[in-house]
Amino acid sequence: MEFLLLNTQILVLHSSSMSEVTNTTQDSFYFILTGIPGLEASHIWISIPFCGLYIISIIGNTTILSAICTEPSLHQPMYLFLSMLALTDLGLTLTTMPTVMQLLWFSIRKISFEACFVQFFFLHGFSFMESSVLLAMSFDRYVAICRPLHYATILTNEVIGRIASAMICRCVLAVLPSLFLLKRLPFCDSRLLSHSYCLHQDMIRLVCADIRINSWYGFALVLLIIVLDPLLIVLSYTLILKSILGTATWTERLRALNNCLSHVLAVLVLYIPMVGVSMTHRFAKHASPLVHVIMANIYLLAPPVMNPIIYSVKTKQIRHAIFHLLFLRKVH
Question: pTM of the full predicted structure?
Answer without folding.
Answer: 0.88
